[in-house]
TrEMBL record:
SUPFAM superfamilies: PhoU-like. It comes from Corallococcus coralloides (strain ATCC 25202 / DSM 2259 / NBRC 100086 / M2) (Myxococcus coralloides). This is Phosphate-specific transport system accessory protein PhoU. Homodimer. It is found in: Cytoplasm. The lineage of its organism: Bacteria, Pseudomonadati, Myxococcota, Myxococcia, Myxococcales.
Length: 227
């Protein structure tokens, strides 16, 4: 994806596109981290910041959409350039949804912070870190046009899913042990599910990067055939 163009304006547009996507990616990575910290540190003020910051993510989504459509209209890209821009249009949607999920986590954290902790939050921060890493790796793969990096994201999803299942089963045990735990355990299950969904969005990005680089659709298990 390091191809350059004799048309300098076109080259600058593509550079701007990559930079804006990276900026949006960095923003949602921060929101994942902050929303989880709002839970573990019982910091509702930080949770409110996450909710407010979603406006910036939405603005970046609109900016990137506009830039992609302008490039399509003015430059009429073909082949790998066209795949790059159509991939960017899809990635931006996943990033926006990751931002929404971080907001959902922050809102759950604000609610949970009003009650005593159910248990030490050990695995939830680990799950958040894994999800954040998956997003970062997927975006790195996009920017560098590296399908092998994208494949690492696909392979890493199993680890994230296993940790989510561990947290889910532990929370279920808390609920069965004492009905007074149900409300807090349910809220924590939603948080874990949101983090698992963030991992799924990173997976989507990685699949699109593989399509962008190799022209191969790996969205469905039978078509993956990873090396």
């Amino acid at each position: 994806m390091a191809a350059t163009h004799t048309d300098k304006a076109f080259e600058q547009d593509l550079r701007n596109l990559r930079e804006k996507l990276l900026a949006m990616g960095a923003k949602v990575e921060t929101l994942i981290s902050q929303s989880t910290r709002a839970l573990t540190d019982r910091d509702s003020a930080l949770a409110e910041q996450v909710v407010g910051a979603d406006r910036e993510v939405n603005r970046l989504e609109v900016d990137i959409d506009d830039l992609c459509r302008r490039i399509l209209a003015l430059r009429q890209p073909a082949a790998s350039d066209l795949r790059l821009i159509t991939t960017a249009l899809k990635i931006v949607t996943d990033l926006e949804r990751i931002g929404d999920l971080a907001v959902n986590i922050a809102e759950r954290a604000m609610d949970l912070n009003q009650a005593p902790p159910l248990a030490p939050y050990v695995d939830t921060p680990k799950l958040a870190e894994l999800a954040q890493q998956q997003v970062k790796k997927a975006l790195d793969a996009f920017v560098s046009g590296d399908a092998a990096k994208a494949e690492d994201v696909l392979k890493g999803d199993d680890l994230l899913d296993a940790l989510f299942l561990k947290i889910f089963n532990e929370l279920l045990a808390y609920m069965m042990e004492d009905s007074r735990n149900i409300r807090r355990a349910t809220a924590l299950m939603f948080i874990a599910k949101h983090l698992e969904r963030i991992g799924d969005h990173a997976l989507n990005v990685a699949e699109m990067v593989i399509y962008m680089v190799r022209g191969k659709d790996v969205r469905h298990p039978r078509s993956r055939d990873l090396e």
